[in-house]
């Protein structure tokens, strides 16, 4: 079984639908989700319902706006 990390975008405090689509296609795999910023417990539950084993909330200075360098450093 493959280990998969899905990067999830959030819009208006909700996971974008494409994330749920990807989780559906990865069914049967060991999938974690990385989210930048805070995500409500309800949305974390939704990700779990779609197959996410773990949800990693990445927080920090300068992550409120997209930056390739900032996001890659946070993932590292």
CATH class: Alpha Beta
Portion in helices:
25-40%
Query: Rg, please?
Result: 12 Å
The secondary-structure element order is EEEHEHEH
Distance between the termini: 23 Å
Mean pLDDT across every amino acid position: 90
* Structural class by SSE content: alpha/beta
Provide a short characterization of the protein structure.
This protein is α/β, with parallel strands linked by helices and 76 residues long. It has helices at residues 17-25, 41-49, 68-75, and strands spanning 3-8, 10-11, 14-15, 30-36, 52-58. The chain has a single domain (3-75), classed as HUPs (Rossmann fold, 3-Layer(aba) Sandwich).
Protein architecture, described:
- By secondary structure, the chain is of the alpha/beta class.
- The chain has one domain (3-75): HUPs (Rossmann fold).
- It is 34% helix and 32% strand.
- The strands form two sheets. It has a three-stranded parallel β-sheet. A two-stranded antiparallel sheet has the order 2-3.
- The longest helix is centred in the N-terminal third of the chain and has 9 residues, at 17-25.
- The chain is globular, with a radius of gyration of 12 Å.
- The relative contact order is 0.21.
- The mean pLDDT is 90.
């Amino acid at each position: 079984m493959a280990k998969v990390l899905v990067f999830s975008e959030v819009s208006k405090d909700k996971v974008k639908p494409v994330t749920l689509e990807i989780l559906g296609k990865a069914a049967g795999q060991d999938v974690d989700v990385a989210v930048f910023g805070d995500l409500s417990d309800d949305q974390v539950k939704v990700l779990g319902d779609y197959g996410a084993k773990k949800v990693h909330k990445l927080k920090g200075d300068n992550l409120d706006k997209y930056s390739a360098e900032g996001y890659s450093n946070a993932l590292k």
